[in-house]
Design a protein that fits this description.
By secondary structure, the chain is mainly beta. It is built from one helix and 33 strands. The relative contact order is 0.13.
């Protein structure tokens, strides 16, 4: 068992780097007064966002061209695939319905539910545009579903011997690399309780149908869900309650092949952990939340094969240990990208603001990739990161009132 608190070898240098903007800030998407909020960015730097009280949808194509859709429905933008297909949800009569915005289209198209069903919703989209979510019948009953083509009807993901046990099951995520027969992960409720069983659907059944495989519970937990998948690794969380050897809380769990599930157990007091990404090599990224509140959230990398856990001490504000760090994306190039808290003081008033960061896993060094840390610069929050980790999009409050609520797009790879 390996447990490390990773500190940069030169803390002074790391702190100096954190105090300046180190990203190649190639693009700042600036829609004054519209209050745009990006929800997806792809590897080409294209962004999809929701703007203004009218919930206008925009698709921004660098450097200065954008498309706009305004519907009579209340719509919110979602993910954006590398092929330019955007996803959105619109609400009418209290019901939410998923739509796609194809790269060559100027309007939204309803995502088709399974045959005989009424509507669909989306929970995750792969970089290639494969989507998972729910197909919903006219009675409001929900079933997990997969769309390998955004213009085809949903494939309902069956559960149980006769395929009738999928009601209220959830499809949470889909395999990134496999576009033909991608595996899907999620969970199913246990009877009528709030407890769940982690599930992986693989296309390995009779007639090459998708089959649900229930993942085993770790010892002394009976409530789990699967959230991520890469290669042979499925990652999720399990709830442990009082009375077990572990502190009560939410723990990151890995199911690798046919091995018994492995539970990530940080040293120290009670804490929850939340995975945000897994790579093909099996390494898992996320953040640990200390329940005592004295130390802020901290990023981690866990390699379940040898139970090697690194919790990074790096923050953008070393003087305030309560300032948290929450990664949003783990890239194959070895970077974590997300949002970190910083405590700033102006005229005697103290305020906690957020800044976008990039953390190099190999060195444990973190840098601010947004505007310089200064009381005159407001908060910046990352809301979407491209699959390759080169682009981060989000929202900022910056400068005088008329420039509040802007959107940003930061480029972090010089060759893009």
């Amino acid at each position: 068992m390996n447990r490390k608190i990773f500190r940069p070898s030169n803390l002074a240098a790391a702190t100096a780097l954190a105090a300046i903007s180190c990203a190649a800030m190639a693009d700042v998407v600036d829609f004054v007064f519209l209050g745009c909020s990006p929800s997806g960015v792809n590897d080409s730097g294209k962004v999809v966002m929701t703007c203004g009280a009218d919930e206008l949808l925009r698709r921004y194509n660098r450097p200065d061209y954008w498309e706009t859709i305004q519907k009579p429905l209340a719509c919110r933008a979602g993910a954006l695939a590398n092929n330019g297909t955007a996803f959105a949800h619109c609400t009418s009569n209290g019901q939410q319905r998923a739509y796609v915005w194809l790269a060559q289209q100027s309007d939204l198209i309803a995502l088709l539910p399974a045959l005989g069903h009424d509507r669909a919703t989306v929970s995750a989209v792969s970089p290639s545009g494969v989507a998972v979510g729910a197909t919903i019948d006219s009675q409001g009953r929900s079933y997990p579903a997969l769309w390998r083509s955004t213009t085809a009807r949903a494939t309902e993901l069956k559960v149980g011997l006769l395929g009738l046990g999928g009601r209220n099951c959830v499809a949470s995520n889909v395999e990134d690399e496999n576009t033909v027969n991608p595996a899907v992960v999620g969970s199913c409720p246990i009877s009528s309780s709030t407890r769940r069983t982690a599930i992986v659907w693989r296309r390995n059944g009779l007639l090459i149908n998708y089959v649900a495989h229930a993942l085993p519970f770790p010892h002394q937990s009976d409530d789990c869900k699967a959230d991520l998948i890469a290669g042979n690794s499925v990652v999720g969380t399990c709830q442990f309650i009082a009375g077990t050897p572990r502190h009560p809380g939410i723990y990151t769990v890995a199911w690798v092949g046919n091995d018994e599930p492995k539970v990530m157990t940080p040293d120290g007091g009670p804490s929850d952990s939340h995975p945000i990404g897994v790579l093909k090599d099996g390494s898992i990224a996320g953040y640990v939340r200390h329940n005592d509140g004295e130390i802020g959230d901290r990023a981690f990398i866990w390699r379940p094969a040898n139970d090697d856990l690194t919790i990074f001490s790096a923050t953008l504000d070393p003087d305030h240990p309560e300032a948290g760090v929450v990664p949003l994306h783990y890239s194959e190039s070895g970077f974590l990208v997300g949002t970190a808290q910083v405590v700033v003081t102006e005229s005697g008033e103290t305020e906690v603001v957020t800044k976008p960061f990039r953390l190099t896993v190999s060195t444990g060094t973190m840098i601010n990739v947004g505007a310089p840390i200064d009381p005159s610069n407001g908060p910046e929050t990352v809301t979407a990161v491209s699959r390759d980790g080169c682009f981060a999009a989000g929202t900022m409050t910056f400068g005088p009132l008329e420039y509040n609520n802007r959107s940003f797009l930061y480029r972090m790879c010089g060759s893009k």
